[in-house]
Amino acid sequence: MKSANERFEYMAELFYKETGFMAPGKSAPPGFYTEEQKEEGQVKWKEWVEEFYIKLFELHEFYSVKG
Length: 67
What we know:
- The chain is mainly alpha-helical.
- It contains two helices and no strands.
- It has one domain (4-66).
- The chain is elongated and about 50 Å long.
């Protein structure tokens, strides 16, 4: 089983690949993002995580019914 940190790193990497934004809590070089971009990234992260969990639970339900 993966640790909480490993799960976060996995999700953060997927988020970055899909959006080009670093997940909140990840270290970006100074000046990498403007304040507006930081705020946008936080909003995108919240939306992305919500969608991630929706898909996760849909998969769980699908395989639970099939199982």
